[in-house]
Write a structure and sequence with these properties.
Shape: globular
Helix content: 40-55%
Distance between the termini: 68 Å
CATH architecture of the largest domain: Up-down Bundle
Radius of gyration: 21 Å
CATH topology of the largest domain: Dehydroquinate synthase-like, alpha domain
Largest sheet: 6 strands, parallel
CATH superfamily of the largest domain: Dehydroquinate synthase-like - alpha domain
Length: 386
Amino acid sequence: MSGKDFDIRINSTHRVRFTRNAFDHSNRMLVDLLPTNGHAKVIAFIDSGVAQAFPELETQVSSYLECIPGISSKGVIVQTGGEECKRDKVTLQDAWNAIEQAGIDRHSYIICIGGGAYLDVIGLAAATAHRGIRLVRFPTTVLAQDDSGVGVKNGINAYGKKNFLGTFAVPHAVVNDFSFLHGQPENDRRSGIIEAVKVALVKDATFYHWIEENSEKLANLEPHALEETVERSALLHASHIAYGGDPYETGNSRPLDFGHWAAHKIEQLCDFQLSHANAVSVGLALDTVYSWKTGRLEQASAMRVLRTLKKLELPTWHSSLDQRGADGTRAVFHGLEEFREHLGGELTVLLLRDLGKGEDVHSMDLNLLEECIDWLAAQTTLPSPF
């Protein structure tokens, strides 16, 4: 034995593509993303909500996959998506069953088309079957295309906690097909913009100013403005994962989770009746006000953020913030410990020092948080100062 130590870096390629009508036979993007040794197979999973919104999609996907040279198609599976599919192991188990029955191996591909929750579940199935099968994600919602769909996380909820079971796994590719965006309900499209607001606030002041200036167009879901927002947000998220130095969150800092400690708890407290996007909006508003009240962020900047949320018709308050435990403590405050536990180590919450600039803190004043929540609640009944 030489007694020498070695540190070996293992690199992964994170492919993010933008297109329209990916399953039109004239579009060769997917074909180019699926190199084969002549023995590969492919199976596709589709979120049922997407299949209903695009009635021809299942046929289109099936036809496209059958015509990819050197790859054997094993069909298309349609499953119920949405947050419900993450709340038990049924969808995950059904996906594993389909993968095993189709003989999908590590030289094969899994394609998943759906919203962020469904991508999480099928991503977990792909990451764990045979210890990892190449996955191509097709996020279909604004929220998934501008944030979670371009990430490397997979998971389901368990033990009453968000994403308790899961993996980090770099997908083989992510394809943002803009043709899916405009088939969503208006409220879902609009609420999904919150993750673009978030990443702009912590990473790119110029992008935040652009969102602010185009807030009326975005509120009206003007297609060009929406697509530009999604693309810029997706690239910021992907760039942080690739170049931020901690793609698998082994440290304490979580800059892309600004506003999320409260958001995840709010979802639990209302039994997921509030969407993830709207919960993030409330959590973002709370941490913005707290950043102001602690003297980090100028009041004028905080009011600008809240005004932008209002223009985008995004919430800054939810009644679950008022829920209290037997000891009188607001239930949402338990989200701080759950947030710490999920990552491990000491509590680390990102707050704002300026538009486009964040700062990690390791404790939060619960009395001041009480004041911030009360302040936000008052804005729902009093004339808004922002």
